[in-house]
Structure formats: structure tokens, C-alpha cells
Design a protein that fits this description.
Four copies of one chain form a homotetramer.
Chain A (H helix, E strand, L loop, with lengths): L4 H7 L3 E4 L3 E9 L2 H9 L12 H10 L4 H4 L2 E9 H7 L6 E4 L20 E3 L7 E4 L2 H27 L4 H4 L8 E9 H11 L6 H17 L1 H12 L2 E3 L1 H9 L5 E2 H4 L5 H4 L5 H12 L3 E2 L16
Parallel strand pairs in A: 9-10
Antiparallel strand pairs in A: 1-2, 2-3, 3-7, 4-7, 5-6
Helix pairs in contact in A: 2-3, 3-10, 8-9, 9-10
The complex binds flavin-adenine dinucleotide (4 copies).
One flavin-adenine dinucleotide sits at the interface of chains A and D.
């Protein structure tokens, strides 16, 4: 009897809807917080002073990058997701995948069209992302034309198939929004690495919807590990050697952002567009060392960089 | 001075065209046949009878699955390829990839349209493949309608971008035939594993075009290894325990396929559609043990299965 | 309810003794034959003619190197094993390990001394192995002196510890036969790769003892996969391109080994020590194509090479 | 012509001594800072505002965990190292290894005996490490007895070999300090991961000697990447969610360690042995937020945890 038997029972095999036609379901789990701790304890046989409690041990493992015990837990998912999201997911090589083959199988007409609220303008500061929502008319045009093109592509696909064109060739015009399905198995260490990158504000919104659901499942299945992951990864902050030097130069006491200039490291002093400097200011504000000035743009730096 | 310096000089940086708009170029290489042998020889220090010649050693390593010396050689490629081909390539996890990001970058209107000769009918026997060429009219229809749908998708994409829709969302209607670009680095052991699967007659024709070019580059850069790879993998044949039992039951002398029936293993006897039996017949013919009968369908079995 | 629930119940947590102080126990399993087949079937959605039965499907996956569905099953073991065996085991990188740390922990005085029957002479033909048992006196000397040196090393170790020397330094004289402990988790595809290499007659006898026990567990937990593994890997034979050419040159009918000479490929004709030629003869005998001549040494070729 | 051609020339093939009989030599390198940047730039084709300079780009890649471009560089080493160090090295699975086989080869009598200055007492606070040097007499005893036991083991080994015991069995009594040799190839991303863990003050002193030499080679070969690695990894500091909350609670201005107590988070308040609290104090001192009190033990926390 593992402590997470009830959570397993609750989650296994239940399909959770994602996006317009997507799904995610937990198919199987190996392990629990105590089994992670147990695997780690093989390291400490005789001669070690005291047995650690699971919580303290798991937190220390994650903090000190002793990551192999988290590989001892494994999760298997079923996912239905648009191809452009799958292309981001498959980049995580430390996982096992079985995907529907469009060489063997006929794909049904199912493609992703973002909700109007998810259609955003190209970000000015962050070259890879989207920013505020686009106006309603543009969103409607986007949705209509994307839908038309996708539907038209499926008409061509189906007509290709009727003409007995091989499936592998017939599918070439299909859109990147086409839904695909896969089984995906990954260990907990690598899943946390995935979630750290894909729940991040800089990951594409669509993959974040999948990552968030997986994250909430992990939180139920491995509550101690999840708390440690939140404390030491998701909500942690990394200070560079320069950041540390810079904090040591601050006068002490919360200073106003406008006054920061006089204490800046020489390498940042006359470089207002330096991204490391901008990221530092976001961090210093988050640490309560600097009082943000709303007239100043520095806190526009990517939030992911504030970690 | 490595023995393959001239081949490196000849190949490095030269772009080879593939498909209608694709390319492949060797960017860098580490290693040579002698360096593979040298790494293997670290295993045999003092106490071993004699130093092997490189050719004999490399052939033995490959034959006996001592594969780590081949990991000591590394190749880096630039590839421009349709997204549906990239999706097959990326499944090979033991490689490093940097791909153009359609979140950061605007994709030019370049998509793959197969030549008429590459548009084939769906295979009847092999669920995942294509078979003989389709008739000229159907091919022309295929090419025209696929082109129209792809072009239409790019019009929508470009109009999305003009409306300031974020790139990551704008690209959703783009076709699976859209060209992408990547840097791809892989060691020689894993490249041979890739080539073994992707030069195979059962791999999709399009990825085979890329694999064949890579293969010809490896043949120039690592001639001894390549010869061994051809002899022990590409042109080798695997006999199952049942195949071995079956060969032992044959009367000796080349027998006619029609007469084979009487010598068949009991598990294959009354199972004319059994795929292991069909694959056995293909192998026996290739070994010269059975004289094929053209009236009989057995040698329709997949050629890949004859290995 | 998976079909292998009873086998899991029977095996889980039971420790099996290995060598003089070793152990192996299955701690956890994810998956079953049907779940492997189910993951593979995600590939074949609509449009595929018929649902395959599990047995046929699993055999085809293994035969045609479609290996990812076997990655969907996972096994977790506890192992107690001599360090020199662990050093062979850890070479299999596609697995997760947590091992007792001799930096944190005090190692008990437990080291491996081979049974007299396992002490063999250095092989003449196979540079890496042992051959027939050594004579009783030499074996007794071996056992006594190895035991003395190992025991003496532990005395030094324990006296180091009493002198408060750090554990990580104190352990330096300990013998390679010292037992260590680990948790080891691996997926079924990579476990079969491990077993293919480590149940082989050329693997060191000691690691084979561990591999054989794991193999017998897999046979109970995944009976269909195991049967396929035996038929297509363990008991299969690989014929090289040269072997195939050679078989085609044979006259037909079982020929005597003495007569083989006249039919040999030119590259093998005057090369009696050529190992590919020697391995061919072993294979031809196993196929029933050649009648072995006990006067002739050819069948001395490594058995592993007869595959 | 890559910018690091001179550094390659200088380093390649030169053997550097390590420990008493060890060696390390760089055998080959693929890549340079500019080639890493070039691979990353494939991501940013048309549509991206401006080309980044290499330094800014490389620093951003490392900071934002976009690690695949660093996989495009590869290093191949020859290493001669004690077996207990090799056992730590081999745990890094994302590397390729060819090691001398003690099944094939006779090992010469070469084993590691630490210098007196490297023989330390078992750490009290850090269960896995050593602390201050041991007294001269104990060190001498350690060295003498370890040497005796190791030499005795080699005598047994050599006598085993003379008795024709197979090498794989003869080597069982050999000490963990025995030198082994290997070829080791790894990409720059995974090498930095290795160096981050093995140059750390908590890694065993012996492996740090190897890691430090590799680090100094990387610094010459990839100077921009190395600087970024120092700034964002080696000399960086990670603040947990609790650390951030705690810093926000500090009154501002450098406070004395004795006064810290009143501002502590409730979870740390009455837990003087809580390791997260102890690690926080070390970090706060390093940031110049807390004035250390030498009477107080808090800064005894592991230095590795101060990151
Ligand atoms: C915000 C963001 C932007 C990105 N932009 C781009 C982009 O523009 N272009 C692009 O191509 N990619 C981009 N990526 C993808 C990124 O480079 C990685 O492919 C992805 O994040 C997966 O990370 P990983 O390699 O650490 O994971 P995994 O592949 O799961 O690997 C985990 C770890 O295992 C090791 N590893 C696994 N396989 C190998 C192997 N074959 N060789 C060596 N080590 C291995 C490495 O240590 C690796 O860190 C982006 C990612 C993010 C999060
Ligand atoms: C003809 C054909 C048909 C196919 N049909 C389908 C299909 O319908 N659906 C589908 O999804 N795929 C299909 N595949 C893809 C196939 O399952 C593999 O993904 C692909 O062939 C890559 O092989 P690989 O995994 O051995 O290569 P790599 O990923 O390069 O791995 C090489 C080896 O490294 C090890 N390895 C690497 N990464 C991991 C990891 N994370 N965990 C465990 N071991 C690892 C394994 O031992 C593996 O064999 C097909 C492939 C072929 C050739
Ligand atoms: C009889 C025998 C003799 C041997 N003799 C020697 C010897 O003298 N010296 C010696 O050093 N070794 C020797 N080996 C060990 C051998 O080279 C392998 O290390 C071992 O068999 C593990 O195999 P593997 O690498 O395929 O397994 P895994 O490490 O589990 O890898 C499985 C597959 O995953 C992929 N893979 C995993 N990790 C990586 C990575 N980091 N980079 C690239 N691909 C990866 C590869 O495709 C690999 O085939 C011997 C092995 C055998 C069986
Ligand atoms: C100070 C310290 C103390 C340690 N103490 C112990 C101990 O007591 N006991 C012990 O057993 N180990 C211990 N270790 C070893 C540790 O657990 C790791 O094995 C080692 O640090 C290698 O790290 P890695 O796994 O990240 O590296 P690599 O194996 O090189 O892997 C790099 C990354 O690739 C991915 N990866 C590679 N292969 C696989 C795979 N097969 N499956 C899943 N993901 C994979 C992972 O994302 C991994 O993080 C200790 C290490 C350190 C630094």
C-alpha cells in the first residue's frame, strides 16, 4: 500500500479535455514519494548517523541535484494534441513515445482553432511570444481564415484518399494544427525538467495547457516532491555571479529604482538595453531590495529570466 | 593526418539538393576508421596476443555488437526538409537538434510537392506504404490540389502576420509539407542505426532520399566501417529460431516453392497468411534453398522482413 | 486487471540469492504484454484493415525493430552484486541507478569468492573469457589467496575507519569483489538489449547469473514478448552478406565439412584463420547444411558469433 | 578557421599528469564558441529583428536553459584514473566510453595512494566528505597499510595469472585504487553538467582533480561559453521560494547574524538544525545582507548548498 494509492485510483484512466479537441489521461504510475526516498536511502547504509524523514530527504535531493532517485518514479500518459504542440513535446528525448502513424492510419478531420482570447499580437519585447489579445475583428478573421484553410486541406486529403493516393503522401497538405494522438511515458525527474520548461511563462500557451494538467496530477501523486519542485525550481530564482556582486554593492534598505543607476556595476552602467541588467532589476524588485518605478521599463524583462 | 582528410575536405560545407527545395550538407566530422579502431584497442592492452588490423577489428566490433567505439566518431549536418520528414527524423533521440523556430522566425513560402513519379497508390500488402505509381491524371490532380491548399495556407499565414497575429499562432494552418531547417549532430553508431531503419525499403521514400545521401557520405568518410555495415546490417539476414528449425527440415538441394508445403513446420502448415512463414519463404529464396514459383504469392512478403 | 497480475504478485519483493552473498529482487513492474500491444495499436487507428491479435503484433514489432512499444513496460530491481559485476551493469546507460555510497556509508565485510567450479583457465581461443575448470589444487590456491587478500583489505579498511580516516579514502584498498547494493530501473526494450548481451555465452559467468534470473522473471511477467525475444534474438542467427553468398554457392544437400573447402568464397579460401569463415562454418552446421567433422577445428568459433 | 584553432593545437594530444599515476589528455574537439552561436542562430531566420553578437547570445542561451546548441560541441579525452574515480565518472550516462577490459588484458601494478595531505578525517557535518587533514602519523599508517594491501593484492593477481587462472577471475582481489584507462567522449552541454557536479566542493577531491583540468581546457577552447558557465552556474546562487520570502522579511541594511532570529520565517524559527535555514544564512552572508557572527555555526552549511 503506497500513500498515493487513492490519488492513483482517482486519476488513472480519466480523460481531461484540453484545448478544443485535445485530451490528456494518466494511464499508469510507478512509485510514490516514499519509494523515491527509499531508493535514495540505499545510499546511506550503515555508518550514517540517522534516518532522515522523507520530506527532508526529498527536499535535499532536489536542492542538491541528486536527481536519480526521481528517475525511479514513472508516469504514462495518453495525449491528444495538435501536431505543432507535439513537435515541442517530442524535443524532450528522455521519454518514450508511440504515436498514431499517418502512414498506416486515416486521420479524422480534427484540427485546432484557438479561442479568440488566445489569438494575440506578436510580442515586441519577447521575440518568440505573443502579447496582449488582438482586437476582436482581427481575431475573428484569423479564426475564420485558419479554419477555412484547414478544412480545405482536409478536403484535399480526403479526395486524395478517395483517389487511392497512399496515405503517407495524401497527408502532406494537412495543417500543423491537425490533432495527433500518442502514448507518452517519462520518469519523474525528466517530467519535472519538462514541466520546468513548459509551464514557464515563455513556453507557448498551448503546450502550457498540457503541462499544467500534468503538473496538477504530479501534485496529487507526489505531493512532497511537488512542493520541493515548486520551492526549488518553479518559484526559485537564480542569481548570477554579477547579480551577487551587484547586490553586495547596494547601499542596504529598499532603494528606489530611479536611484539604482548610481550603484550599478560598471559593465551595466551605460548599457540600458543590457538584458542581464534588466533581468537583475526584475529580480531585485522581487526580492524587495528595489522599489519599482512604473515610469521605468526595466521590469519588462522576461519573467522567465527572473528565475 | 587522418586517412579521411581528403574526403572531409571534399564533403564539408557542400550542399546537396534533396527533393524539390531540400538540402543536406555535412558541416563537420570527428574521427575516422583508424580512430574508431584506436578507441577499441584501449580494451586490449598488455596480455593480448597480437594487434589486430583495423579492418578485421572494425568488422568484428560491428559483428559482435561491441558498438561503443563507433560512438567515438561524430557527424554534424545541416538539413532543409519538409516538416513531415523532420517528424520522422526527430524520433531518433540519440542526436542533437537545433531547428528554426516558427515562434521567432517568419517561414518563407516553401513547401514540398512530390514529383508525379513519387505519387503512388496505397499499398495493399504493406499497410504503411505506397506501391506502384498512380496514373498520370490522378497524380496531376494530387499535385495541383496539394499545391493549391498549401499555397492558400501560406496566404492565410502571411495575412495573419500582416494583421500582427503572433507568429506562433499564425503558423497553425501551414501544411506538413512546409520546409524547415535544422542542424543535426549524431554519432556514427546511432547514425548507422538511423540509416539501417531509414534506408530500408519500408521507410517513407522522402526520408530515404536524405538517408541515402548521408549513407554515401559515410561510405567516403569511413570506408571500412561502411563496408562492415553493408555486410553485417544492410545486406544481412536474420534467421529466427523457427527459420533455423525450418531450414533443418528441408530435404537438401534446391526445392521448388510448390513442394515446400510438405516440409513446413507444423505451426506454419495450414496458415498460408502467417507472416513469419511468408517471410521465411522470401529468405529461403534469397539463400538459394527454394526455387521461387511465380504463381505463388509468398515472396510478396516485405523485403525488410527478409533480413 | 492485467493478465500478469498473478505473476507480479508472485515475484514482487521476493529476494533471489545469486553467487555467494548476492541477491536480486523485483521491486516493481509497469505494464504487461497486452499493454505493450495497446501502445503499439495507437499507431493503427482508422483505415487499418483489422485489429491484430497481441501475439502476432508483438512478434512483428520485435522482428521489424519497432521497439518503442517495449519501452512502455518498466521493471525496478534491487540488486546486491560484486563491484566488478556492477561495473559491467552500469555500462548500460539506458537505466536508472541508485547505489550505496561508500562515501556516506560503511561497507560490511562481504566479498565474492568464486566456487571452485567457477575458477577456470584463461581461454586460448577467446581472449576475453575462461574455458574449462582449472585443476582442484590451483582452484583451492586461488580461493585461499583471493580470500586472504580480500580479508586483509577489509582489515585495513576497518582500521582506517577506526583512525577516523574519511570513508571515501578508507575504501581505496577494498577489492573489486566487494559487494555493493543498488536499485536499478530499466524499460523492457533496454532490458532485452541488456539480456541479449549479458545472457550470451561470451558475457562473464557472474553477470550471466544475474541476467538469467532477470530473464526468468521477464518470461513470467511478459510471456509473449519473452517468446518473441527467444525466437528473434536469443536463438536467432544473423547471416552476413558474405554468408548469404556462401550459402548460395553450396552444392545443395548436406555436405561434409572436409568438402566445404572447394565451395568456399575466394576471400575465405586460403584464410583458415579468418574468423568470419570460422563463424560461417558454425552457422552452416547449425543450419544442417554442413556435416561437422570432429577432426576439424572450425566449430571452435565463438558461439556468440554463430548468431 | 575557427577562433580556437590555436588553443586546439596547443592542447591536443598533450598528456597532463593527475594524482600519482593518472593522466588526462584532450584527443579531439569539434566546435567553437562561434559554431555554438551559429547553430543557435538557425532558430532566428527571417523576421527576427537583429543578429545578436556571439557573447550576448551564448550568455542568453545558458541563462535561459536553451541548452541544445552546446550539444553541438564535442570533446574526446584519454583518461588514466583509479577505478573508484571511474565509477563516479561512468555515472554520467550522456557520454561515450571505451575502457580497458580486465577480461582481455593484464593490468600492470599501478594503484593510487593519496598524498598525506589528501588523507583527511571523516567530516562531522557533511556525511559524505572529508574534512581537515589527519595527523601525520595516522596519514603515514594509512598510506603504508593501504599500499601493503594493494601490493599484496597485485601479488595474488599475478600469481593467479601465472597459474593460468582466467584474467576476469584473477582480478577479483585487485583494489578499487587500481588505475584503469579509458577514452571518453562527451558534448559540451553534458560536460558542463559534469563539471558543475564534479568541480563542486562536495565532489570527492580525486575526481575534482580531473574535472579541474578539463575545466581549464574548456576555458581555453570555449572562452565565452566558459565565462557564461562561471557566471550562471559555477558562481551562481539559487534562492528557493522560502529564501525569497525570507529576504523580503529582512529589515534592510546589513543585519548582524545574532539579530537574524527575529526576522526568521516561522517555519525556520525554532528549528536551529534545519538545513534550509542554515543554507539560507550562508547565502545571505554571501549576498552581504547578513554580517556573519563567528560564534555562530550557521555558516557551516555545505558550500554547495550556498548556490
Ligand atoms: C523557451 C524555449 C525555447 C526554445 N527554442 C528553441 C529553438 O528555437 N530551436 C530549437 O531547436 N529548440 C528550441 N528549444 C528546445 C530546446 O533546445 C530543447 O530541445 C528542449 O527544451 C528539450 O530540453 P532537453 O534537451 O533538456 O530535454 P531532453 O531531450 O529530455 O533531455 C534531458 C537531458 O538529457 C540529456 N540528453 C538527452 N538526450 C541527449 C542526447 N541525444 N545527447 C546529449 N544529451 C542528451 C541532456 O543532458 C538533456 O539536458 C526551446 C526550448 C524552450 C523551453
Ligand atoms: C518502419 C518504421 C515504422 C515505424 N512506425 C511507427 C509508428 O507507427 N508509431 C511510432 O510512434 N513510431 C514508429 N516508428 C518509430 C520507432 O518506434 C522509433 O521511434 C524510431 O525508429 C527511432 O528508433 P530508436 O528509438 O531506436 O532510436 P533512438 O531514439 O535514436 O534511440 C536509440 C536507442 O537508444 C535508446 N534510447 C534512446 N532514448 C531512450 C529513452 N528516452 N528511453 C529509453 N531508451 C532510449 C534505445 O535503446 C534506443 O533503441 C517507426 C519506425 C520505423 C523504422
Ligand atoms: C561481450 C562484451 C564485451 C565488451 N567489451 C568491452 C570492452 O572491452 N571495453 C569497453 O569499454 N566496453 C566493452 N563492452 C561494453 C559495451 O561497449 C557497451 O558499453 C555495453 O554493452 C552497453 O551497451 P549499449 O551501449 O548498447 O547499452 P546502453 O548504454 O544501455 O545504450 C543502449 C543504446 O542507447 C544509445 N545510447 C545510450 N546512451 C548513449 C550515449 N550517451 N550516446 C550515444 N548513444 C547512447 C545507443 O544507441 C545504445 O546502443 C563489452 C560488452 C560486451 C557485451
Ligand atoms: C555530490 C553527489 C553525490 C551523489 N551521491 C550518490 C549516491 O549516494 N548514490 C548514487 O547512486 N548516486 C549518487 N550520485 C550520482 C548522481 O545520482 C548521478 O548519477 C550523477 O550525478 C550523474 O548525473 P546525471 O544523471 O544528471 O548525468 P547523466 O547520466 O549524464 O545524465 C544527464 C541527464 O540526462 C538524462 N538521462 C540520461 N540518461 C538517462 C536515463 N537512462 N534515464 C533517464 N534520464 C536520463 C537526465 O535528464 C540526466 O539528468 C551523486 C552525485 C553527486 C554529484
Amino acid at each position: 500500500m503506497a500513500s498515493n494509492d487513492a490519488a492513483k485510483e482517482e486519476l488513472k484512466g480519466k480523460s481531461v479535455p484540453v484545448l478544443d479537441h485535445g485530451q490528456i489521461a494518466l494511464l499508469d504510475v510507478m512509485g510514490s514519494d516514499e519509494e523515491i526516498a527509499e531508493a535514495a536511502r540505499v545510499s546511506y547504509r550503515k555508518g550514517t548517523k540517522q534516518v532522515n524523514d522523507d520530506r527532508g530527504l526529498i527536499r535535499r535531493l532536489l536542492r542538491h541535484r541528486h536527481t536519480t532517485p526521481f528517475e525511479m518514479a514513472e508516469l504514462k500518459f495518453y495525449m491528444k494534441l495538435p501536431i505543432f504542440v507535439e513537435r515541442q513535446c517530442i524535443r524532450h528525448r528522455m521519454a518514450s513515445t508511440n504515436e498514431v502513424s499517418a502512414r498506416y492510419s486515416v486521420l479524422p478531420e480534427e484540427y485546432y482553432i484557438p479561442e479568440a482570447s488566445a489569438v494575440c499580437v506578436q510580442s515586441k519585447t519577447n521575440k518568440q511570444g505573443r502579447e496582449e489579445e488582438i482586437d476582436a475583428t482581427s481575431a475573428a478573421i484569423y479564426r475564420q481564415s485558419t479554419n477555412d484553410a484547414s478544412h480545405r486541406a482536409f478536403e484535399v486529403y480526403n479526395s486524395n484518399l478517395r483517389n487511392d493516393v497512399s496515405r503517407e503522401i495524401a497527408r502532406i497538405p494537412l495543417p500543423l494544427g491537425t490533432y495527433t494522438e500518442k502514448y507518452w511515458k517519462i520518469d519523474l525527474h525528466n517530467l519535472m525538467h519538462f514541466l520546468g520548461l513548459r509551464m514557464d511563462a515563455h513556453a507557448q500557451w498551448e503546450i502550457r495547457q498540457y503541462a499544467n494538467i500534468m503538473g496538477s496530477m504530479v501534485a496529487k501523486l507526489f505531493p512532497i516532491t511537488w512542493q520541493a519542485f515548486e520551492d526549488f525550481r518553479l518559484n526559485a530564482m537564480s542569481l548570477s555571479a554579477l547579480d551577487i556582486k551587484q547586490i553586495n554593492r547596494l547601499p542596504g534598505g529598499k532603494i528606489a529604482q530611479v536611484d539604482l543607476e548610481k550603484y550599478l556595476l560598471s559593465e551595466w552602467c551605460n548599457a540600458p538595453k543590457n538584458s542581464e541588467r534588466a533581468e537583475f532589476i526584475v529580480k531585485a524588485i522581487r526580492l524587495g531590495l528595489v522599489e519599482p518605478s512604473h515610469a521605468l521599463p526595466a521590469h519588462e524583462a522576461h519573467t522567465s529570466t527572473s528565475k
